[in-house]
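Postdoc handover notes: sequence design on the structure in folder B. Input tokens:
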């Protein structure tokens, strides 16, 4: 598996990249120029893409009668499988790649003669590529390629202007450090989807759906440090995978991006004393959480909270609320295109992938991070349980801020049990998580009512339908929220009795 990073480059800055001193100083030799045409192939029913695989045939203007075919697994940002082989002609022969591919299911797919017989061109890219071999401090090399050209699917076209960094082996932090050095002079942005994913989006005329949290696969042999990195990168993938949807102003993509960010912050809080990130990363995550949260609050009010209201049809209010949500989604585009967002994503990727919590590249003697995860996780899980138990014990159900603190503690305890699910007793973990989820849902609804009260206050002044409906809805939600808080006793007691560590 190689580590890959693709960054969007402003078209006007292409020549500045080509002559950038950072690349000139670190490159081994002069850059190489090439003109490449990649033609992607699939079956009419998209059998390859449905299994997370892309296949293209590449030809070079400078190498006549020379073709290579490349298969990739593009579904995981910054990490992918990539295999290639030479071809005698411009027609794909996927069976030549099958012997290289380790995942058995993908190897069988490439070796399938029926699939090979039905392959057809689906889209293509034509680019001018400038390539540098970058020398790294450990003696390894990093491939840096600047692409400028066009992605075409039928009569639909998209401009390509991006920088691709690839590292087969070595410290992944070096890749992100180089990107940060370039970003200081030229505003770069993360490419939210692979080139193949963008091509298929054009082909299918359907944007990628919102991406939920993936199942985290842990092995009994893993150390606590291995698990921390594995979970952190999983959370980060969820954040990054939802970027294209958020840029389309899709409410569900924003929700899932925010879930990924919450999971990541919960993980960092859990491991705070073992692997504390630099202050600039924590501050950046807090900033991004606030930016995403503002738009999400209005989405929830428009999309679900108002549905709990009876007695009137708050149509005018719903329109006003949706207008606020739309305005914040538009404002969010500036946030996600801002240099600060790119810096944050590069920093957290480099920190996680390069294990930069290590001092001098090694864990200190006796560090819990070096323990087997099955043993090292227990103090972390107990800490989450005890925090939740303390907050439940001290809770006045009528106290909104106190309820919110219990909700946050329940959410962190649930995330902890989900993170370590593969290392926990299956049935007990499932019951514990379900119990926490039920409490979290109840507390979440009450929190939605409290947030709605704050937001509706902004629409309650003046005359007309909107202020009148806002006043009605505030009173209605306050009444059902008070009734709901009186019904918390049973789910609170149920959670207080359960434990995943005993």
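Designed sequence:
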């Amino acid at each position: 598996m190689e580590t890959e990073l693709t960054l969007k480059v402003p078209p006007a800055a292409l020549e500045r990249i080509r002559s950038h001193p950072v690349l000139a100083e670190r490159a081994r030799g002069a850059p190489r120029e090439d003109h490449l045409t990649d033609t992607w192939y699939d079956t009419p029913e998209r059998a390859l893409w449905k299994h997370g695989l892309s296949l293209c045939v590449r030809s070079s203007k400078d190498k006549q009668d020379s073709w290579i075919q490349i298969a990739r697994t593009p579904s995981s940002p910054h990490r992918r499988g990539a295999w290639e082989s030479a071809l005698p002609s411009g027609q794909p022969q996927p069976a030549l790649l099958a012997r290289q591919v380790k995942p058995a299911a993908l190897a069988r797919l490439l070796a399938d003669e029926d699939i090979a017989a039905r392959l057809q061109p689906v889209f293509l890219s034509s680019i001018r590529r400038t390539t540098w071999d970058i020398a790294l401090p450990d003696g390894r090399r990093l491939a840096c390629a600047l692409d400028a050209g066009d992605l075409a699917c039928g009569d639909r076209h998209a401009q390509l202007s991006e920088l691709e960094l690839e590292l087969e082996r070595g410290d992944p932090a070096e890749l992100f450090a180089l990107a940060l050095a370039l970003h200081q002079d030229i505003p770069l942005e993360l490419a939210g989807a692979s080139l193949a994913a963008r091509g298929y989006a054009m082909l299918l005329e359907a944007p990628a759906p919102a991406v939920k949290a993936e199942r985290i696969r842990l092995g009994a042999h893993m150390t606590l440090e291995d698990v921390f990195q594995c979970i952190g990168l999983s959370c980060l993938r969820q954040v990054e995978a939802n970027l294209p949807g958020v840029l389309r102003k899709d409410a569900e993509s924003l929700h899932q991006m925010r879930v990924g960010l919450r999971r990541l912050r919960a993980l960092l809080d859990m491991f705070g004393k073992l692997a504390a990130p630099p202050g600039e990363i924590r501050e950046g995550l807090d900033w991004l959480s606030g930016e995403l949260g503002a738009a999400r609050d209005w989405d929830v009010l428009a999309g679900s909270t108002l549905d709990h209201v009876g007695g009137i049809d708050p149509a005018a209010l719903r329109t006003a609320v949706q207008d606020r949500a739309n305005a914040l989604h538009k404002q969010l585009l500036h946030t996600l295109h801002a240099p600060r967002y790119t810096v944050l994503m590069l920093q957290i990727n480099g920190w996680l992938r390069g294990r930069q919590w290590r001092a001098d590249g090694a864990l200190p003697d006796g560090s819990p991070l070096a323990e087997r995860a099955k043993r090292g996780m227990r103090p972390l899980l107990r800490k989450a349980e005890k925090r939740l138990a303390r907050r439940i014990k001290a809770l006045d159900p009528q106290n909104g801020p106190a309820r919110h603190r219990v909700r946050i503690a329940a959410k962190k305890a649930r995330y902890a049990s989900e993170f370590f699910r593969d290392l926990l007793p299956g049935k007990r973990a499932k019951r514990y998580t379900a119990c926490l989820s039920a409490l979290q849902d109840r507390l979440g609804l009450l929190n939605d009512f409290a947030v709605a009260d704050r937001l509706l206050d902004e629409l309650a002044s003046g005359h007309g339908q909107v202020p009148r409906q806002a006043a009605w809805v505030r009173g209605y939600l306050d009444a059902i929220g008070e009734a709901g808080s009186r019904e918390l006793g049973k789910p609170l007691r149920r959670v207080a009795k359960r434990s995943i560590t005993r």
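Context for whoever picks this up: The chain has two domains: 1-206, 209-502. Don't rerun without checking with the PI first.
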